[in-house]
Design brief:
By secondary structure, the chain is an alpha/beta fold. Helix 3 (95-105) packs parallel to helix 5. It is built from ten helices and 14 strands. The strands form three sheets. Strands 6-7-8-3-9-10 form a six-stranded mixed β-sheet, with helices on both faces. Strands 2-1-4-5 form a four-stranded antiparallel β-sheet. Strand 1 (3-13) and strand 2 (19-29) form a beta hairpin. It folds into two domains: 3-223, 3-Layer(aba) Sandwich (Rossmann fold), CATH 3.40.50.300; 227-294, Alpha-Beta Plaits (2-Layer Sandwich), CATH 3.30.70. The protein starts with a strand and ends with a helix. The protein has helices spanning 44-51, 73-78, 95-105, 112-121, 137-149, 167-182, 194-200, 218-225, 272-281, 296-307; strands at 3-13, 19-29, 33-37, 59-64, 67-68, 80-83, 155-159, 186-191, 203-208, 211-217, 227-234, 250-253, 258-264, 286-293. Helix content is 33%, strand content 29%. The protein binds adenosine-5'-triphosphate and magnesium ion. Magnesium ion is lined by residues 44-45, 85, 159.
Amino acid sequence: MSALIKVTNLSKTYEGGFTALKDINLEIMDGEILALLGPNGAGKTTLISIICGIVNPGEGSITVDGKNIIKDYRDTRRLIGLVPQELTTDAFETVWNTVSFTRGLFGKAPKPAHIEKVLKDLSLWDKKDNRIMQLSGGMKRRVMIAKALSHEPRILFLDEPTAGVDVSLRKDMWQVVHRLRESGVTIILTTHYIEEAEEIADRVGVINKGQIVVVEQKKELMRKMGTKKMFLDLHQALESVPQGLSSYDLELVEEGRQLVYTYDTRKERTGITSLLGELNRAGIKFKDLQTEQSSLEDIFVNLVKEQT
Ligand SMILES: Nc1ncnc2c1ncn2[C@@H]1O[C@H](COP(=O)(O)OP(=O)(O)OP(=O)(O)O)[C@@H](O)[C@H]1O
Ligand SMILES: [Mg+2]
């Protein structure tokens, strides 16, 4: 995969002096789904807005498909569809007209067959003659996506596509995203729902206070940064963790009936073998054992915490 978008040494200070982005370097690959995670105010919307040409970049440069977003603005913008964080649609227009009109704004000739496909893909076909104000919130959000896809972009930015959307619609949205990717669209989305990133992203980028803390293949991130926990269900409850085991990261829970051992999967030795040996020597018997990998959520919380 090659880089479709290249962000190089990008910094942004808003009028008034607030620095929202600090020296961002990021490559977005052709055909991938990249999720950007970060707390409120981290700079996600700023970054997206700059790439889409809505906010002026400060220092640094950005290319889309090899072209500079400022010098070749029209060419790069045409490749991009954007679903902004704030919903903005004309309440009195019909779904069909709104979406068709947006295509025209990009200087593309009408193509009703494409508009029809987009509306069908987003389950909006039976609403095509409804006015926007007659739709539910989730349907309005889908209209925003339809607008962003009206001009057949190669890249789709979704700024919190599922904020305030119910669970079943969120899952629909994930399917839409997957289908789009299968059709070759590169997708960048921001989200606060970490399980969303876990579910649909190929790569995950974490932004905090205007800086990219990490960008990594999702699986690799979970493997590299994750800790694991091993749960040992004991035959007999213990009053405290035995002295001889104090060098292990152990916690006694469930009224002394379960020992929890936390270990780092990055280390060459996890300590499991020796711990089990020590337990055996101490005469502590267990009935069952499970392990659990930490979630993207744990990793995210740790990364953002470490930085503050
Ligand atoms: N037009 C502006 N003028 C001045 N400061 C701004 C402007 N837009 C955003 N900011 C500031 O820049 C920082 C980053 O904002 P941004 O909207 O990019 O965050 P975000 O990561 O998208 O947050 P959220 O998750 O809440 O959407 C915030 O501190 C915000 O107050
Ligand atoms: Mg935002």
